């Protein structure tokens, strides 16, 4: 018996892989992690899953007819096994055919960034690098996490970087904050993950310190359990998608009570007179009073008045989770939060101001000397001007040649003939999946490379099996975490799986540009190269990295916290003339002349309330009276790990669990543990129901990540068996300005499923 222990890393934390006689036994948490993720326990189940793709596969009729095959058979037809040389030849030939006949704008190089914590075998980086080097391809802009905010915040504060976790450090918040307001909560489960992995999970220790100090925390959310119980947060239940109405009313009250910091607004902001006119109703005839907001939000007017008074004269820290902006008109609460904090004169003060993403991702507010994580370059896309917003995939596939609006410009969707998807599962992230299925049938060819038979792989023409991170060497780390981490290969590749880097290198060789793609480096040389790049950048900050061999042997480099706590906007607050922010005015923009110049019908040049297309105040709520919120799961990262036994064991009656208020369940004759039918005009799904009083009446909760299952390889049914909420979500942009993903504006009706087999 031989026991081997090697350092490794996943998006949900660093760990030691324990291997016995070549078999992965378990994953032991990293020594520095005070709150390790239980998701580490699922990793061996994934490695040895019976859902692994064992060898290259090609859809039967595509192999016979290529681009002339019946594309509606994707997901319904069987596959034929081929060897690697044949599979790579087919991919290269199809790549060449489409590029030569239609040009690079006919190729969609799809991926999503959570594919691997390792930076050398990071599929999203590699597929972009491969296609950019080869002449270009249609890329995606932004992400599903904070896509609306990414393209909106630069108009208001000059940057989107706070979304990545570069916000006021937690120690400063704990020391100086008098009141902490969390729109969308502070869910610990979300803080278990960080892109690129992490050596430490920071949210729980920080919240424990905040609670020990006794700082008041207010959780403004439809969900009570968005905040851990030990924080002792006050829960203010709010009707989903109405946060901006509450914020507007708070602004009205602060103005009414003459508590506005006029000096800060004059020196550091532009546009407050226009916003003030809107708050007071001078511009539209509707004062944004607490009573007005109460009718929209469901929060008593008196409680709104009290909350305004709690903020006045206090060092306040206000944060919005990412989920708040993943809704129709989701940019508005982010804008008004910034305005509200500015009215109180808080930005740039220690422990105060505004922030994003606490309770949405790990490492937000981590103390760390600023410096990059290891990162391979994608290179420059020769057709970068044709990239689409990340959430507009279905629109692109269904409406080639048609115009759309983005960032004040009118653009045109390309005509896609080839999809090559590596890393990630679009049939998890995307909205209105039945619409995506229709679009997915349009291109000539779909290529997917992945570890397991995800829904995307099952709907491909060519499928390439990829190694897990445990089956290869790599390097990882996050720009907000204090560790750069080695990822040693722990076991041999399973079945016929190959590394992403090697797959793309061999494809590049077939297409004549291997050396350009690889820069004549193999996997090991790239790992050392990325380490050295990272070391040089940190050396300029006075941080010494050891020699590569020492790092590789020890498994990590620790980066110090820094001598001075970071305060977001501190320099700007101290001297806005000497340290302007990168907006058009150099100041915080509460009214944007740039946005005004776009003359968008759905986007005013200042924060405003416009009803979302779907919310509990809409007319359609008469037919679909429940607002469905799709939350991140606690037992997996998005849809990763959904097929493993430990995750499947957490389901209810074999389906994803939907949480419902007892009052809503009783009205429908539904009992806890039963199978339910959840539907709207966009689709239907089965779920298992559980009851809780920790959700507002009229609101239901379900985790994302269940693998879309309309009956792959069988006669498809007009419903999803697994409980994937994106069968029901609405596939529209958050606005014509940002075209961000909209998942949170979704109304449904629920009934007891009469027959689970034929529901």
From TrEMBL:
<dbReference type="InterPro" id="IPR006657">
    <property type="entry name" value="MoPterin_dinucl-bd_dom"/>
</dbReference>
<keyword id="KW-0574">Periplasm</keyword>
<dbReference type="InterPro" id="IPR006656">
    <property type="entry name" value="Mopterin_OxRdtase"/>
</dbReference>
<feature type="domain" description="Molybdopterin oxidoreductase N-terminal">
    <location>
        <begin position="8"/>
        <end position="48"/>
    </location>
</feature>
<dbReference type="Pfam" id="PF00384">
    <property type="entry name" value="Molybdopterin"/>
</dbReference>
<dbReference type="InterPro" id="IPR041954">
    <property type="entry name" value="CT_DMSOR/BSOR/TMAOR"/>
</dbReference>
<comment type="similarity">
    <text>Belongs to the prokaryotic molybdopterin-containing oxidoreductase family.</text>
</comment>
<dbReference type="GO" id="GO:0009061">
    <property type="term" value="P:anaerobic respiration"/>
</dbReference>
<keyword id="KW-0560">Oxidoreductase</keyword>
<dbReference type="Pfam" id="PF18364">
    <property type="entry name" value="Molybdopterin_N"/>
</dbReference>
<dbReference type="Pfam" id="PF01568">
    <property type="entry name" value="Molydop_binding"/>
</dbReference>
<dbReference type="GO" id="GO:0016491">
    <property type="term" value="F:oxidoreductase activity"/>
</dbReference>
<dbReference type="GO" id="GO:0030288">
    <property type="term" value="C:outer membrane-bounded periplasmic space"/>
</dbReference>
<dbReference type="InterPro" id="IPR006655">
    <property type="entry name" value="Mopterin_OxRdtase_prok_CS"/>
</dbReference>
<dbReference type="GO" id="GO:0009055">
    <property type="term" value="F:electron transfer activity"/>
</dbReference>
<dbReference type="InterPro" id="IPR009010">
    <property type="entry name" value="Asp_de-COase-like_dom_sf"/>
</dbReference>
<feature type="domain" description="Molybdopterin dinucleotide-binding">
    <location>
        <begin position="626"/>
        <end position="746"/>
    </location>
</feature>
<dbReference type="InterPro" id="IPR041460">
    <property type="entry name" value="Molybdopterin_N"/>
</dbReference>
<protein>
    <submittedName>
        <fullName>Biotin transporter BioY</fullName>
    </submittedName>
</protein>
<dbReference type="GO" id="GO:0030151">
    <property type="term" value="F:molybdenum ion binding"/>
</dbReference>
<keyword id="KW-0479">Metal-binding</keyword>
<dbReference type="GO" id="GO:0043546">
    <property type="term" value="F:molybdopterin cofactor binding"/>
</dbReference>
<keyword id="KW-0500">Molybdenum</keyword>
<feature type="domain" description="Molybdopterin oxidoreductase">
    <location>
        <begin position="52"/>
        <end position="510"/>
    </location>
</feature>
<dbReference type="InterPro" id="IPR050612">
    <property type="entry name" value="Prok_Mopterin_Oxidored"/>
</dbReference>
């Amino acid at each position: 018996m031989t026991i081997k222990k090697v350092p490794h890393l996943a998006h949900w934390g660093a760990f030691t892989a324990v291997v016995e006689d070549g078999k992965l036994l378990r994953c032991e948490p990293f020594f520095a992690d005070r709150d390790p993720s239980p998701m580490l326990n699922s990793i061996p189940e994934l490695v040895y899953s019976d859902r692994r793709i064992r060898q290259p596969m090609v859809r039967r009729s595509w192999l016979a007819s290529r681009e002339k095959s019946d594309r509606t058979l994707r997901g319904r037809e069987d596959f034929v096994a081929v060897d690697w040389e044949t599979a790579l030849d087919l991919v290269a030939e199809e790549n060449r055919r489409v590029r030569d006949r239609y040009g690079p704008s006919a190729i969609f190089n799809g991926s999503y960034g959570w594919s691997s914590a390792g930076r050398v075998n990071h599929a999203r980086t590699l597929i972009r690098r491969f296609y950019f080097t080869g002449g270009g391809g249609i890329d995606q802009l932004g992400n599903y996490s904070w896509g609306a905010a990414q393209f909106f915040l630069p108009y208001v504060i000059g940057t989107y970087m706070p979304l990545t976790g570069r916000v006021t450090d937690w120690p400063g918040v704990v020391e100086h904050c008098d009141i902490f307001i969390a729109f969308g909560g502070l869910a610990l489960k979300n803080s278990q993950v960080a892109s690129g992995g992490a050596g430490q999970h920071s949210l729980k220790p920080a919240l424990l310190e905040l609670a020990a100090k006794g700082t008041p925390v207010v959780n403004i959310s439809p969900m009570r359990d968005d905040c851990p119980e030990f924080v002792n947060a006050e829960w203010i239940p709010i009707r989903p998608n109405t946060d901006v109405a509450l914020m507007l009313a708070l602004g009205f009250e602060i103005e009414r009570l003459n508590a506005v910091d006029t000096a800060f607004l004059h020196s550091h902001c532009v546009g407050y007179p226009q916003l003030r006119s809107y708050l007071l109703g001078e511009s539209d005839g509707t004062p944004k009073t607490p009573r007005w907001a109460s009718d929209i939000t469901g929060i008593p007017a008196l409680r709104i008045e009290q909350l305004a008074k709690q903020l006045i004269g206090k060092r306040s820290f206000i944060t919005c989770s990412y989920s708040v902006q993943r809704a129709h008109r989701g940019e508005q609460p982010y804008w008004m939060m910034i305005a509200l904090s500015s009215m109180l004169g808080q930005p740039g003060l220690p422990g105060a101001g505004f922030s994003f993403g606490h309770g949405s991702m790990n490492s937000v507010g981590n103390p760390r000397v600023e410096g990059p994580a290891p990162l391979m370059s994608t290179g420059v896309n020769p057709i970068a001007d044709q990239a689409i917003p990340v959430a507009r995939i279905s629109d692109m596939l269904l409406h080639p040649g048609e115009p759309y609006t983005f960032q004040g410009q009118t653009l045109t969707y390309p005509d896609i003939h080839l999809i090559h998807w590596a890393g990630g599962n679009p049939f998890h992230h995307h909205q209105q999946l039945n619409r995506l299925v229709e679009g997915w049938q349009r291109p000539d060819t779909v290529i997917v490379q992945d570890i397991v038979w995800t829904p995307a792989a099952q709907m491909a023409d060519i499928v390439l099996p990829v190694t897990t991170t445990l089956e290869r060497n790599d390097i990882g780390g996050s720009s907000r975490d204090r560790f750069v981490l080695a990822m040693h290969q722990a076991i041999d590749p399973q079945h016929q799986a190959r590394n992403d880097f090697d797959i793309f290198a061999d494809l590049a060789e077939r297409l004549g540009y291997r050396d350009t793609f690889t820069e004549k480096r193999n996997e090991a040389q790239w790992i050392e190269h990325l380490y050295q790049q990272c070391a040089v950048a940190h050396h300029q900050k006075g941080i010494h990295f050891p020699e590569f061999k020492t790092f590789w042997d020890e498994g990590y480099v620790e980066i110090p916290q820094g001598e001075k706590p970071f305060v977001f906007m501190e320099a700007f607050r101290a001297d806005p003339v000497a340290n302007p922010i990168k907006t058009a005015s150099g100041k915080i923009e509460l009214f944007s002349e740039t946005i005004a110049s776009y003359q968008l019908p759905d986007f005013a040049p200042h924060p405003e309330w416009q009803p979302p297309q779907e919310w509990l105040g809409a007319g359609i709520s008469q037919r679909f009276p429940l607002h469905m919120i799709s939350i991140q799961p606690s037992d997996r990262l998005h849809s990763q790990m959904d097929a493993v036994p430990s995750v499947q064991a957490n389901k209810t009656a074999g389906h994803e669990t939907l949480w419902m208020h007892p009052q809503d369940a009783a009205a429908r004759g539904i009992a806890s543990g039963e199978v339910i039918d959840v539907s709207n005009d966009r689709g239907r799904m089965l779920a298992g129901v559980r009851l809780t009083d920790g959700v507002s009446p009229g609101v239901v909760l379900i985790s994302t990540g269940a693998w879309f299952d309309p009956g792959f390889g069988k006669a498809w049914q007009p419903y999803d068996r697994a409980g994937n909420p994106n069968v029901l979500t609405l596939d529209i942009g958050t606005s014509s300005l940002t075209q961000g993903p909209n998942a949170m504006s979704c109304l449904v009706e629920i009934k007891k499923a009469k027959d689970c087999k034929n529901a």
